[in-house]
Amino acid sequence: MGRLISIASGKGGTGKTTTTANLSIALGKMGYKVLAIDADLTMANLSLVMGIDDAETTIHDVLAGTAQINDAIYQTSYENVYLVPAAVDWEHVIKADPRRLPETIKPLKPHYDFIIIDCPAGLQMDAMNAMMSGEEVILVTNPEISCITDTMKVGIVLKKAGLAVLGFVLNRYGRSDNDIPPEAAEEVMEVPLLVVVPEDPKVREATLEGIPVVEYAPDSDGAKAFFELAETVVRIAGFKARVMR
Q1: pLDDT tens digits for 173-222?
Q2: Which 3 state secondary structure label does DSSP give 156?
Q3: Residue 82's beta-bridge partner residues?
Q4: Of the candidates 5, 64, 22, 17, which has an alpha carbon nearest to the alpha carbon of residue 43?
Q5: Are strands 3-8 and 114-118 parallel, antiparallel or unpaired?
Q6: pTM to 2 decimals?
Q7: What's the 3-state SS for 95-115?
Q8: Mode of pairing for the β-strands spanning 136-141 and 74-75
C-alpha cells in the first residue's frame, strides 16, 4: 500500500509546489511509482512546474462530476512520476466541489508507492479538504517567525484531525541575516526538521525554465536538499531505495 502525503503550510509562497514537484521526481529517481496531485484548486500551478500545461481533463473536472479520476492522470516526462493537474480558469474552479477530494484521492493509494498532494495554504475549507485527503503531512515553512508560527498552527490542527505530521521543511534558508535558525525553528514547530533547503539561485532558474531543480541542476545545493528529503521520507516509510540515483 502506498503513502498519502499532503504538503501543507500556513502561508502561501513558502514553496509547497516546488517541494511537491522535486520530492515527487526525486522519489521517482529512487525507483518508486509516484503520483503528484495539484489540490490547490484556486491557485493551481503544479502542472506548469512539471511540464504538463495542456491537459484536457483535470482534477476540477473530476470534482465537478464530469470525469473519472483515471481520466485526469498523466504520465510525466520524469521517470516513474505521474500527475493529476488542476485547471487554471475560474469557470472550472466554481464548478469543482473540494469536499469530494478525500473520496477521490484515497482510493488511488493501492496503485502508487507515494501520492504527494500539493495543498492550498491555511485552514480554509478547500485547504482542509485537500490536506485531509492525505494520511500524513509534511509542512513547508520559510525561516520567518510569522510564517513558522502560522505553519505550526496548521500542524497542530492536522494532528488533532488525525493526520501524522512527519515533520517540516525549512525552505529558502540563508536569504536574510534575520532568518530564524533551524534549531530555533524546530523548537517552535515542535515537529522534526526533515531538511533545510538553502536559498539557491538554481531553484529560481529551474522554476523559470519549468523544470524542477532535481532535474535541472541535480548537483546544486537546492537539489541535494530535495534528494535528502526524499531519502528521509523513504526511511520514514520503511521502504528501501529500489535504484540508486
Answers
A1: 999 999 999 999 999 999 999 999 999 999 999 988 999 999 999 999 99
A2: helix
A3: 35, 75
A4: 17
A5: parallel
A6: 0.96
A7: HCCHHHHHHHHHHHHHHCCEE
A8: unpaired
